[in-house]
């Protein structure tokens, strides 16, 4: 192995020298400032090459595949985040992980020595002689793992390199996984562009990271059809966006838009929308003692109805009636019985301009009527030297325009919603209607119906993360904005803690797309947590998992989950002591998770008083800074930490019901290496009985 390591070390130095020399030469060439299109193109290509070289400079590659294509000689292929070639002969030095030939590195499992891939020229087949994982960090070769050697004894060591990567402690950002993409993940990443992918993934299955790598793949594979600035990522909140913000830059991708659905709709709608305070609402839903079961049920029924396909169909019917009766009856007359009949105007509206949205048709008709008045007036100018007739005609025209529907989008929605049997009267505060987030999809749908969709709001691809918290109406209205039904929709139904606005079954989304354009994937392997943590979490959710498959841990064993009974007066000292212990053990990200926001705030004050520096995560926080965090349990979904301690897991805070079980499941599955559960002498019935309480 020493010889193998030395050979790879020499190869690394050779590659680094090449990259550094190329960078030096290219950076000496000044940027082209002229107007010659050919020179501009060449300059852009040089900049792109510089970007690829800079991306490769610290860690040029992560794998090696020795492949002998049938009828050709054996070629060692080194795979990295970016492709690098020799400018003199255009031979590849490093293969981009997204290239067709690189797919073999991920799909080859060592079951036989044959492999192949689909190139632009057709299928290519051959023999694999070696598959080698290489860990290169800061230009230093850290590890070499052979997962397949032809003719050798190939023990199942594929996971050795994966476990090495998984065992690393995390900082405050999600990272790329190009060196450890698994077979089932690679199938998703390399799926065709015009497909709507729906991914059910257990906690830690890498679904978010896979979706981001899919974006990088689409931008590489479909360079003429997919642009970064026409891709949108929808995430649950700003802090989550901050948490995932490093992945695409690590892959050399910039310019992808990222937002929340609420922010995006508020930007799209031209009139100001006032939303009800969501903190109070989440307290009502999540926090014990804040509302009755009946109040929660009423909240869920109304919110789910507004997000349902039934409400969408209701609005479609009402808007069809609005369109049918949009042209006022009676026509429009000026002088000498000069008249446009309502039939003529209706023909313009329903036939000539039928391909345009309603308000644009309205504008076209008003402009056409104004021109008609001008043309008719030319014929009578001699007997109307002071334009009196024209002035009267224009006044009639102003009056006629007022007969048309001129309501704002919000008023149209409120009027139509009131006519339904389910939607309750909207709250009015300071003469403003207060809306909820689930009103935004219907509002945007009505806006699109009336005004159309501007070019800058049409996308080549859309990612929806934590999609179990989206409604069918939200996905439908996004579908109007996406070319070719190109979606990556991902989530976990066992984490649908916002059940009042989300879904219970992925079929609610599947039915929105043509059957031949939708693909469903299930990711059951958890790469995040240790075996002990996953088994504990699976027991927590067992009674409520239904037909969903529980998480299968990658065999990475760790310390047992600790369940400790603690008196209230000792809680802060226990937590502080645990934090200090985790910090000394090298844990970079630590989370103290409470049941409520109020409890998190109180504990935060106590920890500061005990000298523990940390960050308090609140609903309006937009950045995740890593280190030590205190947060209510419903705000940590989608994140991961080296060590997690769950506080006050007793019968009062965590009773035996579906929502609470899902919340506790979310909390448990945030931990990578260490999980501690603090309870009282009356522990939550959701805690596994087999786990000893100390």
Overview of this structure, please?
With 694 residues, the chain is α/β, with parallel strands linked by helices. The strands form six sheets. Strands 1, 2, 3, 4, 5, 6 and 7 form a seven-stranded mixed beta sheet that branches. A six-stranded parallel beta sheet has the order 10-9-16-17-8-18. The longest helix is centred in the first third of the chain and has 26 residues, at 2-27. The two termini are 46 Å apart. The mean pLDDT is 91.
State the oligomer.
Answer: single chain
Strand content: 15-25%
Low-confidence stretches: none
Sheet having the most strands: 7 strands, mixed
Radius of gyration: 31 Å
**Count of individual helical segments:** 23
> How much helical structure, as a percent, in the residues?
25-40%
What's the count of strands?
26
**Mean pLDDT, rounded to whole units?**
91
Shape: globular
Distance between the termini: 46 Å
| SS-based class | alpha/beta
Task: Explain briefly what this protein structure is.
Pfam families: UvrD-helicase (PF00580), UvrD_C (PF13361), UvrD_C_2 (PF13538). The chain contains 23 helices and 26 strands.
List the helices and strands and how they pair.
Blueprint: H1 2-27, H2 37-57, E1 63-69, E2 74-80, E3 84-85, E4 92-96, H3 103-107, E5 114-119, E6 122-137, E7 140-149, H4 158-166, H5 183-189, E8 196-201, H6 207-221, E9 231-234, H7 238-243, H8 247-250, E10 257-259, H9 261-268, E11 274-275, H10 278-286, H11 293-306, H12 309-324, E12 332-333, E13 339-340, H13 342-352, H14 358-378, H15 388-401, H16 409-418, E14 427-429, E15 432-435, H17 440-451, E16 461-464, H18 472-479, E17 487-491, H19 507-510, E18 518-523, E19 525-526, H20 531-541, E20 552-553, E21 562-565, H21 571-584, E22 589-594, H22 597-609, E23 615-616, E24 627-632, E25 641-646, H23 658-668, E26 671-679
Helix pairs in contact: 1-2, 5-6, 14-15, 16-17, 20-23
């Amino acid at each position: 192995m020493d010889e193998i390591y030395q050979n790879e070390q020499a190869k690394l130095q050779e590659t680094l020298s090449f990259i550094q020399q190329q960078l030096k030469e290219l950076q000496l060439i000044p940027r082209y400032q002229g107007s010659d299109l050919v020179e501009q193109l060449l300059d852009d290509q040089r900049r792109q090459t510089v970007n690829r070289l800079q991306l490769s400079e610290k860690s040029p590659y992560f794998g090696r595949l020795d492949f002998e294509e049938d009828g050709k000689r054996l070629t060692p292929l080194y795979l990295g985040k970016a492709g690098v070639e020799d400018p003199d002969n255009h031979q590849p030095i490093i293969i981009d992980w997204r290239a067709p030939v690189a797919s073999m590195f991920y799909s080859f499992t060592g079951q036989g020595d044959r492999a192949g891939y689909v190139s632009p020229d057709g299928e290519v087949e051959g023999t694999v002689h070696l598959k080698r994982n290489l860990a290169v960090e800061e230009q230093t070769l850290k590890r070499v793992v052979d997962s397949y050697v032809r003719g050798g004894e190939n023990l199942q060591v594929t996971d050795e390199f994966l476990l090495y990567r998984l065992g690393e402690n995390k900082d405050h950002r999600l990272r790329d996984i190009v060196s450890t993409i698994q077979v089932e993940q690679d199938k998703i990443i390399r799926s065709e562009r015009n497909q709507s992918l729906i991914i059910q993934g257990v906690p830690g299955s890498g679904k978010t990271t896979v979706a981001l790598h899919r974006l990088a793949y689409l931008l590489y594979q479909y360079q003429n059809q997919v642009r970064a600035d026409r891709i949108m990522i929808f995430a649950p909140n700003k802090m989550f966006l901050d948490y995932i913000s490093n992945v695409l830059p690590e892959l050399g991708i910039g310019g992808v838009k990222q937002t929340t659905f609420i922010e995006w709709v508020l930007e799209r709608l031209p009139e100001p929308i006032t939303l009800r305070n969501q903190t109070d609402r989440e307290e009502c839903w999540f926090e014990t003692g804040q509302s009755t079961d009946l109040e929660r049920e009423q909240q869920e029924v109304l919110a789910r109805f507004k997000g349902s396909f039934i409400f969408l169909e209701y609005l479609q019917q009402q808007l069809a009636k609005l369109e049918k009766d949009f042209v006022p009856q009676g026509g429009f007359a000026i002088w000498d019985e000069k008249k446009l009949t309502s039939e003529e105007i209706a023909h313009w509206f329903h036939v000539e301009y039928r391909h345009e949205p309603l308000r644009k048709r309205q504008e076209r008709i008003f402009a056409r009527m104004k021109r008609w008045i001008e043309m008719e007036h030319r014929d009578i100018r001699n007997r109307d030297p002071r334009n009196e007739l024209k002035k009267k005609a224009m006044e009639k025209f102003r009056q006629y325009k007022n007969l048309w529907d001129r309501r704002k989008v919000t008023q149209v929605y409120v009027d139509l919603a009131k006519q339904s049997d389910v939607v309750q009267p909207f709250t009015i505060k300071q003469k403003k209607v207060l809306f909820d987030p689930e009103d935004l999809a219907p509002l945007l749908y009505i806006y699109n119906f009336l005004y159309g969709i501007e070019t800058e709001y049409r996308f080549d691809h859309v990612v929806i993360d934590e999609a179990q918290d989206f409604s069918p109406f939200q996905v439908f209205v996004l579908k109007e904005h996406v070319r070719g039904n190109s979606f990556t929709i991902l989530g976990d139904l066992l984490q649908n803690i916002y059940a009042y606005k989300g879904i219970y079954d992925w079929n609610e989304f599947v039915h929105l797309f043509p059957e031949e354009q939708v693909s469903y994937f299930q990711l059951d392997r958890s790469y995040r947590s240790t075996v002990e943590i996953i088994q504990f979490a699976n027991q927590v959710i067992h009674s409520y998992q239904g037909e969903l498959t529980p998480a299968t841990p990658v065999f990475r064993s760790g310390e047992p989950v600790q369940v400790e009974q603690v008196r209230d007066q000792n809680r802060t000292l226990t937590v502080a002591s645990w934090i200090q212990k985790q910090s000394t053990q090298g844990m970079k990200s630590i989370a103290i998770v409470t049941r409520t926001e109020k409890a998190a705030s109180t504990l935060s004050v106590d920890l500061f008083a005990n000298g523990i520096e940390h960050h308090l995560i609140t609903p309006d926080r937009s950045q995740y800074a890593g280190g030590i965090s205190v947060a209510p349990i419903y705000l940590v979904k989608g994140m991961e930490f080296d060590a997690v301690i769950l506080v006050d897991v007793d019968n009062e805070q965590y009773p035996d019901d579906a929502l609470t079980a899902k919340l506790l499941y979310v909390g448990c599955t945030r931990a990578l290496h260490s999980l501690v559960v603090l309870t009282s002498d009356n522990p939550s019935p959701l805690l596994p009985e087999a786990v000893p309480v100390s």
